Amino acid sequence: MKAVVDIIESGLLELYVLNLLEGDELAQIENLRLNSSEVNDEINKIELFFEQHALQHSVPVSINTELKLQNLFHQLSSTGELNISNLPLIDENANYQDWFNLVENLIPINGVDGTFTHLLTGNEKVMQMLVVSEIDIKKEIHENELESFLILEGSCICTIDNSDFSMGPGDYMSIPLHKSHTVKITSLSVTAILQHVAL
Predict the structure, then answer these.
(1) Are residues 83 and 172 in the same domain?
(2) What global pTM score does this model have?
(3) Strand segments (E) across the chain
(4) For residue 66, which phi and psi values (nearest 5 degrees)?
């Protein structure tokens, strides 16, 4: 029993929980954990303490960082095929051909009269929609949401303040906050994925 008390007071259990033991010490603690309810209980208490400490001292993550992490986890677990009921965020690495294949059957085949939209994702954090437009997009300024879009078909010129960006299939644009922007259609129509992320 003295050996168990000595082990508990030695700090080895804390090192074990932090995965900092190796060799004989690691084998000794793993053996004690299996054969001593007192050691096992103490390890459970230490794990709970570390968990509570981490929760109490955690730093809040910005919504933008949280969404980027969710997108990264989605990409890591993805088979490479987009799922319309669980779409990733678009970004500069988005594959426009994958997105086009996903929404191709939603695109009107006889053209549109002005603008066509189809909501793909809609919740309090993210809005994603398919947009087909034959007309220019008038000036907008966003104060509390991040707007971006991915061109699937057609061409356009996106003007942000006084800078022009020619865009075509596969091009991605992220609109800075508080900047006026317009889109001039330079083909018969433009098909894009439009995304708004709330801040």
Answers:
(1) yes
(2) 0.63
(3) 115-122, 126-133, 137-140, 145-153, 156-160, 163-167, 172-175, 181-185, 190-198
(4) -60, -45
Cα separation of the two ends of the chain: 57
Contact (Cβ atoms closer than 8 angstroms) between residue 160 and residue 147: no
Domain range for 172: 63-198
Contact (CB, 8 A) for 29 and 13: yes
Which of these, 65, 103, 90, lies nearest to 170 by C-alpha position? Answer: 90
CATH of residue 118's domain is: 2.60.120.10
Say if residue 11 is in the same domain as residue 102. no
Taking 3-state DSSP, the helix, strand and coil percentages for the chain, each rounded to the nearest 5, stand at 35, 30, 35
Same domain, 106 and 147: yes
For residue 128, which of 74, 62, 77, 167 has the smallest C-alpha distance? 74
Local confidence pLDDT in tens for the 199 residues of the chain: 457 788 888 888 999 888 888 888 888 888 888 888 888 899 999 999 988 988 888 877 777 777 777 766 666 555 567 888 889 999 998 999 999 999 999 999 888 889 999 999 999 999 999 999 999 999 999 999 999 999 999 999 999 999 999 999 999 999 999 999 999 999 999 999 999 999 8
